[in-house]
Write a structure and sequence with these properties.
InterPro entries: AB_hydrolase_fold, Carboxylest/Gibb_receptor. This is Alpha/beta hydrolase fold-3 domain-containing protein. The protein has one helix and five strands. The mean pLDDT is 77. The strands form two sheets. The protein has a three-stranded antiparallel β-sheet with strand order 1-2-3, with no helix packed on it. Strands 4-5 form a two-stranded antiparallel sheet. The protein is elongated, with a radius of gyration of 19 Å. The protein is mainly beta. It is 4% helix and 25% strand.
Length: 102
């Protein structure tokens, strides 16, 4: 952060190495891993796509592989999962939730 922010640089909560919260509301996540881009899992054929909700947030959609049921006009069930932890130390694009491409 820049030095002209004054008191905004003050640390309010320091939970290193997981998260550091500054007075300005800015968060630092020292253990953050690089995000895994959306794509298609070669083992299952499941595709993922990211949909932006805002400049700082997104949802990751997981789509089943094409199959005869879909081609025949049948509908597939939909599962909606809301992660209750808020992804404080990760995100839907973390390697823990999305396999790395092979």
């Amino acid at each position: 952060m820049s030095s002209d922010a004054g008191d905004d640089d003050d640390v309010v909560h320091d939970f290193r190495p997981l998260i550091v919260v500054y007075k300005s509301g800015w968060l630092e996540r020292p253990l953050a891993t690089p995000p895994v881009p959306p794509g298609t899992d070669a083992a299952t054929g499941v595709a993922s796509r990211d949909v932006r909700l805002s400049a700082a947030s997104f949802v990751r959609l997981y789509l089943p592989p094409p199959c005869a049921a879909v081609a025949g006009g049948e509908r597939l069930p939909v599962v909606v999962y809301f992660h209750g932890g808020g992804f404080v130390i990760g995100s839907a694009a973390s390697p823990r939730y999305t396999p790395l491409p092979q």
